[in-house]
Amino acid sequence: MPLDYIAKRFGMFLLIIWLAATVNFFLPRLGGQNPVREALLQQAAFGGSVQLGMEDMIAEYDRKFGLDQPLWRQYLTYVSDMTRLDFNYSIPNYPQRVIDMIMVALPWTIILLLITTIISWITGNLLGAFMAWPRSPKFLSYLMPPLLSLSAIPFFLLGLVLIYLLAFKFKLFPLSGGYTAGTFPALSWPFVKDVLSHSVLPALSIILVSIGGWALGMRAMMITTQGEDYVTYADAKGLKGRTIFLRYAIRNALLPQTTALALVLGQLISGAVLVEVVFSYPGIGTVLYRAIRGSDFYLVQGIVFILIVSIGLATFILDLIYPLLDPRITYRRA
Questions:
Q1: What is the pLDDT of residue 103?
Q2: Dist CA 333 CA 203 (whole Å)
Q3: Which of 1, 47, 178, 222 is most exposed, with minimal Cβ within 10 Å?
Q4: Which of 23-27, 55-59, 108-112, 243-247 is modeled with the greatest confidence?
């Protein structure tokens, strides 16, 4: 791959990150609200009284967070901080830093969604490929209605159904949380087993819905691929059905699915927000939900910025490795 193309794509990646980060900075400020004032007013309302010296507290916190500076200076400070992944302090949870809160929640979301995405992608693509292949067993055709139904159900809605059936009704799994309340996290088998039991229902709600979407997409691509000339030619040459299925049909049908997988992996850190909220799972989705409810200005900015970088990086890497997946694609000049 030419180095000038790599440099060009990397420059485009940096430009996209900068533009998205700029929107991320200015968009919350269009409303003209002061996040410090909002946080202090919520605390005062929760306490049932108006705190004395509210304006003095707001002014002091504004100086602490740099909100008393002109907008252009705040922007320059923001860009400088973003390059160092410094997202300032959490306003309602001061003196906790935003990056520390994100790093605590991030592993929970990455592990949960990485495993569920890979399982659903592999299973869904295999089911979709076999459903579209004419020589597959006939009973696979009966999977179409349930897969179509599952793909139309939101993650969180299926999660509520699973909570009622498997946690409340039959008490097979815990109702919510990442681990049992009062347990001290440690790298030990009892704690790992506890975490796994709490993650079954969130994972199951994501996998069941995602399998339907991947299977339907793969089935459509396989049907399209079977009409291509290279598949017809391979069949005319007398190649075995297994060879045509694996080397000609699936290999080419997987290309769009691989692109979609890379984009989904880039969005892992955003989490299945509502799923995590429904199950009170201690991932990045729950942190984002609480940050929005608590007007945690800098925490929302930090999570959105990391999401922007992850999606941009996934797209950049996919663009570089796509010629390895499809030899027909080349970036060399003719």
A1: 92
A2: 45
A3: 47
A4: 108-112
Locus of tokens 């945690």: 296
Whose tokens are 């000609």? That residue is 248
DSSP letters of 204-246? HHHHHHHHHHHHHHHHHHHHHHHTSHHHHHHHHTT--HHHIII
**Tokens of residue 264, six digits:** 């989904």
The pLDDT assigned to 271 comes to 52
Domain 111-293: give its CATH code.
Answer: 1.10.3720.10
Q: Provide the β-strand partners of residue 97.
A: 89
Q: How many CA within 13 A on the CB side of residue 110? A: 10
Residue found under tokens 């049907």: 223
CA distance 277 to 16: 30
How many other β-carbons are positioned within 10 Å of the β-carbon of residue 52? 7
Q: Where are the domains of the chain?
A: 111-293
Query: How many CA atoms are closer than 13 Å to the CA of 260, on its beta-carbon side?
Result: 19
Q: How many CB atoms within 10 Å of residue 251?
A: 13
- Nearest in space to 42 (alpha carbons), one of 291, 294, 290, 286: 294
**Angle formed at CA 103 by CA 64 and CA 180, multiple of 5 degrees:** 115
Evaluate whether 324 touches 312 at the Cβ level (below 8 Å).
no
Residue 72 scores a pLDDT above 90: no
The confidence band for 56, taking pLDDT boundaries of 50, 70 and 90, is: confident
Render pLDDT for 192-248 as a digit per residue (tens, 0 to 9). Answer: 999 999 999 999 999 998 998 899 899 989 988 888 888 888 888 888 888 888 888
Give 277-325 as a DSSP string: HHTT--SHHHHHHHHHHTT-HHHHHHHHHHHHHHHHHHHHHHHHHHHHH
Overall residue count recorded for the chain in this entry: 334
